[in-house]
Specification:
- This protein has about 110 residues and is mainly alpha-helical.
- It has a domain of about 55 residues: Arc Repressor Mutant, subunit A (Orthogonal Bundle), CATH 1.10.10.1410.
- α1 packs across α3 and α2 crosses α3.
- This is Large ribosomal subunit protein P1.
- One of its GO terms (cellular component) is cytosolic large ribosomal subunit.
- P1 and P2 exist as dimers at the large ribosomal subunit.
Length: about 110
């Protein structure tokens, strides 16, 4: 990560920690106050657009979560007790074997 990207990232974290809206102007102000001179304005604009409408604290808390929640359990599965094993048995059916070129009598080197 370049110095410019790090500076803008830290500036965005400072604004998020203070509960302020992340804008390119505010990012640039913090970067200038930190005396980081080599940051081009395009970086602040890109970060501001990328983080627009997003909760940065929430993003940090969900790092590495995989992007999705676990599927919900069936509504009556826990209450009935006997319905869950039947559902598992249905899912354990062996998959049909797909036909391959070998089954058809020809291959790559025939």
């Amino acid at each position: 990560m370049s110095t410019s990207e790090l500076a803008v990232s830290y500036a965005a974290l400072i604004l998020a920690d203070e509960g302020l809206e992340i804008t390119a102007d505010k990012l640039q102000t913090i970067i200038k106050a930190a005396k980081v001179e080599e940051v081009e304005p395009i970086w602040t604009t890109l970060f501001a657009k990328a983080l627009e409408g997003k909760d940065v604290k929430d993003l940090l808390l969900n790092v590495g979560s995989g992007g999705g929640a676990a599927p919900a359990a069936p509504a009556g599965g826990a209450a009935t007790g006997g319905a869950a094993p039947e559902a598992v048995k249905e899912e354990e059916k062996p998959e049909e074997k797909e036909e391959s070129d070998e089954d058809m009598g020809f291959g790559l080197f025939d």
